[in-house]
């Protein structure tokens, strides 16, 4: 069961009516002024080796998409670029890059060669105004299929450098989700843009609600195996091996790791109880603590970034709404009071916002909203055709993933945290319950 550069044109929700709200919510961290960036096509050093041009096209497409989606840069169209190819620093004449319609602050260029031993990429980032080098990287991989990974890594390096370390980018992150193909629903992980999808489970059962451990080494999810009648909470190591946390009843749902990886919170039932509560336990399933203890339905818990609070969904007020409780079960507060049906809260990495889905009274579809924890202001991020549910933040807090039905079946989407730049990243099967990983590598 599971109930900063661009300002957000926000809509605040008030008693089921949408009224205009000033654009005071932005993607954080917000630069003082827009950074204009040009990313030229990397040039094949030689086309004599097979696959060089193909590898170059993949690299160029991925790098451009990563930088554009980062929400850090204004990127003029390549159709405005000077025609001269840029393989290495001596090729650059900076003057044409400083006049309209290009007029950029930074310039990305380089070269690529597919060799028998793999792919070699030489990549550069220059400050156009000072004509100084900001980055110079040489990447070498033994498999040409890893050219996407190189592009992701360089994109993240650019974001890190040009944001003064305030963001590490999200190009090298991954998204876990459940996918129904055939008779089983398995857990998959994919690159943030939907490429390189692969299975985590292959048990033939129904596996749902994956959640990443803080070190990205494990996924927690619930599963019910074929022929069984009992849901189980599994923690699976991505390098192999798993453990099943003991539960007193056949119901468990929506696991979420604490920020230190030592605890897990989930919705479950004690023996003799008819409705689920919110429980915290250590990652062996021991030392269970009931945080909500109410006859209502309590589900969909999510830790705050400090793990001092848990947000969850409860219908104790009559309809499912967002509530917050301290990690010891005290200081219970209702955060959303607008009626309708709330579901799937997820706390932003900086602790300012909680994303959730909401079905307004007398409406069929859910949309994605965020509530500002301190002020309780509510902002709508999605609209239009289909339901949008299960929102989850990226580790830099500048993007959100969710499941949506705007194309007919449940698929995974990503967007900027202001609701802009929407992209569908899955297409085959029925896909739901996305969870964005943390960072895998140090900057």
| Number of discrete helical segments | 2
Q: Give the class-level CATH name of the largest domain.
A: Mainly Beta
What is the arithmetic mean of pLDDT?
90
Helix content: under 10%
Structural class label: mainly beta
Question: Architecture of the largest domain, according to CATH?
Answer: 6 Propeller
Portion of residues in beta strands equals: 35-45%
Q: How many domains make up the coordinates?
A: 2
The biggest beta sheet reads: 6 strands, mixed
Question: Any low-confidence stretches, pLDDT <50, length ≥5?
Answer: 1-24
- Report the principal-axis shape: elongated
Distance between the termini: 37 Å
- Would you identify the CATH H-level superfamily of the largest domain? TolB, C-terminal domain
Query: What fold name goes in the CATH topology slot of the largest domain?
Result: Neuraminidase
By DSSP, the count of extended strands is 32
Structural write-up:
The protein folds into two domains: 10-29 and 169-436, 6 Propeller (Neuraminidase); 35-162, TolB, N-terminal domain (Rossmann fold), CATH 3.40.50.10070. The protein is built from two helices and 32 strands. It has helices at 52-69, 147-162, and strands at residues 10-14, 17-21, 35-39, 43-44, 73-74, 106-115, 118-127, 132-141, 174-181, 184-191, 198-199, 206-212, 218-224, 232-237, 242-245, 252-257, 263-268, 277-282, 289-290, 298-303, 309-314, 321-326, 333-334, 341-347, 353-359, 367-372, 378-380, 388-393, 399-404, 411-416, 423-424, 430-436. Strands 3, 4, 5, 6, 7 and 8 form a six-stranded mixed sheet that branches. It starts with 9 loop residues before the first strand and ends in a 7-residue tail after the last strand.
């Amino acid at each position: 069961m599971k109930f900063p550069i661009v300002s957000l044109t926000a809509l605040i929700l008030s008693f089921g009516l949408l009224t205009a709200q000033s654009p005071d919510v932005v993607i954080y961290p917000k630069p003082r002024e827009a950074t204009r960036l040009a990313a030229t096509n990397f040039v094949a050093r030689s086309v004599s080796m097979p696959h060089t041009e193909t590898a170059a096209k993949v690299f160029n497409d991925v790098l451009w998409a990563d930088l554009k989606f980062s929400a850090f840069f204004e990127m003029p169209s390549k159709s405005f670029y000077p025609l001269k190819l840029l393989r290495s620093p001596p090729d650059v004449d900076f003057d044409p890059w400083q006049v309209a319609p290009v007029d950029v602050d930074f310039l990305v260029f380089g070269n690529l060669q597919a060799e028998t031993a793999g792919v070699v990429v030489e990549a550069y980032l220059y400050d156009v105004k000072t004509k100084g080098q900001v980055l110079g990287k040489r990447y070498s991989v033994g498999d040409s299929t890893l050219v996407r990974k190189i592009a992701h890594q360089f994109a993240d390096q650019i974001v890190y450098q040009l944001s003064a370390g305030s963001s590490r980018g999200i190009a090298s992150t991954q998204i876990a989700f459940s996918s129904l193909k055939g008779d089983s629903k398995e857990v998959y992980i994919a690159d943030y843009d939907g490429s390189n999808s692969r299975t985590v489970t292959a048990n033939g059962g129904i596996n749902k609600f994956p959640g990443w451990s803080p070190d990205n080494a494990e996924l927690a999810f619930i599963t019910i195996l074929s022929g069984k009648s009992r849901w189980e909470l599994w923690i699976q190591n991505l390098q192999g091996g798993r453990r099943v946390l003991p539960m007193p009843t056949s119901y468990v749902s929506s696991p979420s790791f604490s920020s230190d990886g030592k605890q897990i919170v989930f919705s479950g039932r004690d023996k003799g109880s008819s409705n689920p509560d919110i429980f915290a336990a250590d990652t062996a399933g021991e030392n269970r603590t009931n945080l909500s203890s109410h006859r209502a339905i309590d589900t969909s818990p999510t830790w705050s970034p400090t793990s001092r609070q848990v947000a969850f969904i409860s219908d104790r007020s009559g309809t499912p709404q967002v509530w917050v409780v301290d990690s010891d079960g005290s200081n219970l507060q209702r955060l959303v009071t607008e009626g309708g049906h709330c579901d799937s809260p997820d706390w932003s990495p900086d602790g300012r916002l909680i994303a959730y889905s909401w079905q307004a009274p007398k409406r069929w579809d859910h949309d994605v909203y965020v509530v500002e924890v301190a002020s309780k202001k509510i902002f709508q991020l999605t609209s239009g055709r289909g339901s949008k549910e299960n929102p989850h933040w990226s580790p830099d807090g500048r993007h959100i993933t969710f499941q949506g039905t705007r194309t007919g079946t449940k698929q995974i989407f990503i967007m900027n945290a202001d609701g802009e730049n929407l992209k569908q990243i899955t297409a085959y099967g029925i896909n739901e319950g996305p969870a964005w990983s943390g960072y895998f590598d140090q900057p």
